[in-house]
Here is the input.
Amino acid sequence: MVSPQELLYSKDHEWVRYDGEIATVGITDYAQHALGDIVFVELPRVGKTITQFSNVGVIESVKSVSDLFTPVGGEVTEINPAVEADAGLVNREAFTEGWLFKVKVSSEADKAGLLDASAYDVLTSAG
Here is the structure.
């Protein structure tokens, strides 16, 4: 699995795509493979203020229930209704249509705590 170069990654296997002050968040292809078939996603509510690396929801698969962490802090501006309707979209389109939520970032400094694609690929190949 090769991670898209334009994204940043957390050690908890979430990705983030910055578009100005809005960051789109999802889980990586590596994470969705490890989880197996995803059957339910609990996302943070719109308007909620979240802190980088905090627990913001739950991802349930046929194998397990896992906490969902956020790679950035700020205010949740949008959640993906397509994923709420069909959680399996995360398995099929982890880096595109399977995004989870968007955040109006509170600090550009959050980027310093994230990995680029090369560093993330090293992390996942080691573990």
The beta strands are 8-9, 14-19, 22-27, 38-42, 49-50, 55-61, 65-69, 74-79, 101-105. The first strand starts at residue 8 and ends at 9.
